[in-house]
Predict the structure of Dynein light chain.
Amino acid sequence: MLEGKAKVEDTDMPLKMQMKALNIASQSLDLFDVSDCQPIAAHIKKEFDERYGSGWQCVVGSNFGCFFTHSKGTFIYFHLGTLNFLIFKGATL
């Protein structure tokens, strides 16, 4: 586990949800090969959908760009080890 090694770059999530995001991400790195980002992202998305309702999105990798709209209080972007994590719930129109 990489506990204590995460660096949150930007977020509007409540602190308790932020901590859950970091914990789930750390656990996923124990479960999956760090070079295979898709199953890591899928695992995090599944956990968030189960805990906080459907509609969550997760992007994991070392180099990506993005542009999105999210629901207030559901966004976090952080680094853990060599990977970047973006988790958010899509905005409803």
About this structure: The first helix runs from residue 15 to 31. The chain has one domain: 7-90.
